[in-house]
Amino acid sequence: MSSMVSSKSFTNTLIVLCLLLLFQAIIPDSFPKIGFFLKYVTIIMTVILLMMHNKMLNVTNDLEKNQNQELKSINPKETASDSYNSLTSLVLDTIQKINPNSKSAIFIADPQKNCFFLQKGSDSEFSENISTENISIRKLIFEKKKLHQKEQPDLWGEIFLGNNWRGSECAIFNPINLYDNTVGFILTRFDHFNDATEDEMNLYGPLAQFVSMSLDTLESLDKHRIGEDTKSFILDILSNSDFKSDSQKIFNQFKYLIRTFFKYDRMTMSLKKESENRRKYDKGVVSIIKLCDGEKDEFNEGSDFPTNSSLHGLPIVTGSSFMTNDWKQSYQNLFRFKSSESSEYQFKSVVGVPIIIEDESRGSIILESKEKSTHSDLNLDDLSLIGQVMGTALHWRYEYEKIHNNATHDGLSGLLNHQTFKERFNDEIQRAARFQQKMAVMMFDLDKFKKVNDTLGHQYGDYVIQTVAKIMIDNVRAVDVVARYGGEEFAIILINTTAEMSNIVAQRIVDNIADYKFSFEGVDTRLSISGGMAEYPTHSDNIRQLIEIADQEMYATKQRGGNGITIHDKEIKTND
Question: pTM, whole model, 2 decimals?
Fold first, then answer.
């Protein structure tokens, strides 16, 4: 309304000014006093007109600013979509990592149209919609059974596009749930049913749960009564979280969020310290500080403290938030961290919330101030939500780490698996080429291992594989690459070193295995291992050729009786 009045007033003033200029032009020179008066009024009217014009510009700017604010209020929804898209992309990428020969898609239900719609995946590979009333589809989703192309070709044709099927293809469904209801599924297709191993299928369930958790978190975040700026900030963190990086990055991201919206002298984030050596009911009795911001004291990142008797452990123990203007008065039976703590830092008001991971309180966020707190109940609610969302982000990170580890590592030995080894090998070759470095490539194979399996049993053989893997890991650097290449065969890449220099490490591995007394369930045995070695780029700059060369030398070692290492072309020259 104000802009309309300003526009109308401006127009009227402009008309008056034009009339004054017209009168001034036609009035005779014989009336000098009237002419002077009109000039004076014209100047005043011009000033007024300019002032009104400036005011109108300000109003226009205000309108544009309001429009921008209205657009900003929409951003959280867009950011939520970005966050969900990032997570679902991560899920499909992980499935591709588990099995490069698979094709995956995510379908989400639309109850009004009685269809599952393709939400993520290639529309050239998958049907864009699948009926929710198809009994066969529902059975496959809920019973988690394989769909074989050869057995149900008509149903297969409803789901997948194309007609060049060989009959060996199969697919699996993993349900996506929200509030205990199935709202969609992850569909994964394999070119051959043998590719859908039990170990791999066990990985896809957690991936579907990963999507379910993301839906649940974004849904609860959307319903919370926090301000749009805070919500937008949280969603931005979720959408930009790199779950492939370490969890400390997540702590840092939430630190900046809390620093933006809350006032404090010190903030501390802590998690329960889990220990495999503790009894089950003792787990979590100690917590560790993961991040602190603001004033420092003797309790910094990495410091631990008893959970049960400390103020900082209170949200972890109770699973609830608290706020006090005098914590020493309110919680007289608690220490801030430990009984031995210094009293130099006199924090008074404290706000604390739990970090919720998998519906369990596993950490705390504590804001401490030296003065009386200005935080409201709404601030406490906001911080509580941040604790929940942060817990979800950490849980996503931990779940991704487990899934990724299962997808990239051999389940028995814990070493890199065959596929991941080749990918790492390719990465290391590119790095070595860029920095003009050399690498040693080793292939090892246990001598007479079949006899161990045949006479002592497969459990004994598994024990041997695990023990040999540990010996190898213990004898190389953290930057080196160790993998179980297949069966009783292992592969090692020593970074930035020559074959001659690596011979010391290779021989140490051979000797340690030969000297090791293998003992399992009261049965002792001795084993040896044979190895072969090639050097990049001296012998080849091709992955396949380097592996073949090292493999040939390994078999040459076996032909000489085993228990040794052979370097290809023993007379190779080292760097000048």
Answer: 0.54
